[in-house]
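Annotated sample (chain length 111).
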Amino acid sequence: SCAEGQVSNDERTKCVKCSAGTYRDSTVTSCTKCPENKVTEQDGATSCTSCAAGQVSNEERTKCEPCTAGTYRSADKTKCEPCEDGTISSVTGATSCSSCGAGTQANSDKT
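Output written by the structure step:
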């Protein structure tokens, strides 16, 4: 059988690496797409790496991308959430939103 991170080709003549965005460990028999907010950037992965807070995985699960300004992702969230009314995140990759100062309010983009 093939090593972890690999599967047999369609002809069953050789082992090939799982593509980036997928993995294979001893618990699965085929290359499996990484779960949400976990990625593999290289072919042949045996596990997926978690995206840091402030980032989410792309659809292909090949890289982590920062949340856009006006949104945030704390470690307990699964996606970039819009800042609440009266708060902003002016940078990409925010893990929380900041309150607007006294006498000010957030713009429509919350940036």
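Annotation: The chain has a mean pLDDT of 93.
Annotation: The two ends are 53 Å apart (CA to CA).
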